[in-house]
Amino acid sequence: MTDDDARAREDQLAGQLLDRADAELLAELARIYEQIDPVPEGLVERIGFTLTLADLEIELARLSTETREPVGARGEERARTVTFSSESLTTMVTITPQDVGQFRIDGWLAPGAALAVELRTDRGSLRTTADLDGRFEFVEVRGGLVQLVIHPTDGSDVRLASLVVTPAMEL
Amino acid sequence: MTADARGPAEAAIGASAQAASETGAGLAAQVAADLIAHRDGDAEAMGALVRRVTPLLWHVARGFRLDAASAEDVAQNTLLAFVRHSHEIAEPHAALRWLIVTARREAMRAVAHRDRTELVDDAARTVAAPETDEPERVALATAAQRVLWRNVSRLSERCRQLLRVIAFAERPDYATLSTALNMPVGSIGPTRGRCLAKLRVLLASDPEWGAS
After folding, report:
1. Set of chain B residues whose Cβ sits within 8 Å of the Cβ of A167
2. What confidence tens digit (pLDDT) does each residue in B151-165 have?
3. pTM score of the predicted model
4. Is B59 contained in some domain?
5. In a domain, B210, yes or no
6. How far apart are CA A144 and CA A142, in angstroms?
7. Bridge-partner residues for A93, per DSSP?
């Protein structure tokens, strides 16, 4: 087939109605994309977690970097350091495995300020307040979905206009 | 009624309708039903909608070569906006279109943000971008899939984006999709459209297609 023939055939096909072969091609294409680029496990649950805050005034932070480093004698456990950024705040957290199924979260807010920090979990919320440098921690956090919510706080050097919310993540 | 009893035009329409019905009631219709149920106070309806459209939103975002975290943000932010605006969408059948348009806009914003931050800070690249469009890196289950993928990879990026979205919208609901993808109706219209036609021509001239 010459280029002109191909072009003419293409024009003709483009103007026709969809047929069963097209539907089969598209279904096969969907199966290919499901294999090579599957929807990440737990994404629906993570989105559902955030959607429960839909009625509130919130500023969504984006994950900007994530690194993992081995910890412990055998280096099997990995500490994750995750940075979230939004218009008002940068939030960095390091998550370190403690005992089985438990985690320690060390966080740092920039600009540093004594803001109220909430850790939403699927079993309810843990609360703390960052120190003047913006440092905070949660210990003995059980595994599962978690999400940080930083609240506008009276008397803090940083004035937040709304809640700052990170994406949900799996511990 | 058998195919023989119909004229060619009827047969084509019949085949198209049959192909459509075989792939389900159509995502646009299912999403519309979820939205109506949600407005009627069904507490489970929004969760059902989220499960239904998350794969589509993921593939819209990844079609823009966003890294996984950014693609997750696109899906999350799109659905958050949808929940907040769910009472403003006048025509429930337009809900899927609204979701696709919003996800594309979010994805383009994320691309712009990524390009900006890469200019000032190379460290922002620690989250790797997907490279799934390179056929040699892809392990596929069947020979037919490998031949199809090889030919899809020869299409323009725009066509690949379009076909990827259509494939996950389950049923090619062209009125919805042509508007959502900002393409002239004539180019994908109620017909096969340019991108699918190109793919059909490529496959027809590939000796390995249909051989397996």
Report:
1. 69, 72-73, 76
2. 999 999 989 998 999
3. 0.79
4. yes
5. no
6. 7
7. A82, A107
Between positions 99 and 118 of B, the ones with CB within 8 A of A are 113, 117
Per-residue pLDDT tens digits for A105-148:
999 999 999 999 999 998 999 999 999 999 999 999 999 999 99
| Cα–Cα dist A107/B149, whole Å | 44
CATH number for region A43-170: 2.60.40
Reply yes or no on whether the pLDDT at B186 is more than 80: no
Residue span(s) of chain A under CATH 2.60.40 come to 43-170
Which domain does B178 fall in, by range?
3-204
Q: Which among A4, A44, A49 is the top mutation candidate for probing chain B, defined by the most B β-carbons within 10 Å of its own β-carbon?
A: A44
Tokens representing B35 are 């939205």
| Residues within 8 A of A (CB atoms), B 65-104 only | 68-70, 72-73, 75-77, 79-80, 83-84
Given a cut of 90, whether residue A69 has pLDDT beyond it is: no
pLDDT band with cut points at 50, 70 and 90 for residue B51:
very high
- Which helix (H) or strand (E) segment holds residue A9: the answer is helix A3-14
Q: Three-class SS of residue A95?
A: strand
Q: For chain B, how many structural domains are there in total?
A: 1
Residue B79 lies in a domain: yes
- Which residue type is seen at B90? A
B132 interface with A at CB cutoff 8 Å = yes
Q: What is the pLDDT of residues B116-126, one digit of tens each?
A: 766 555 444 44
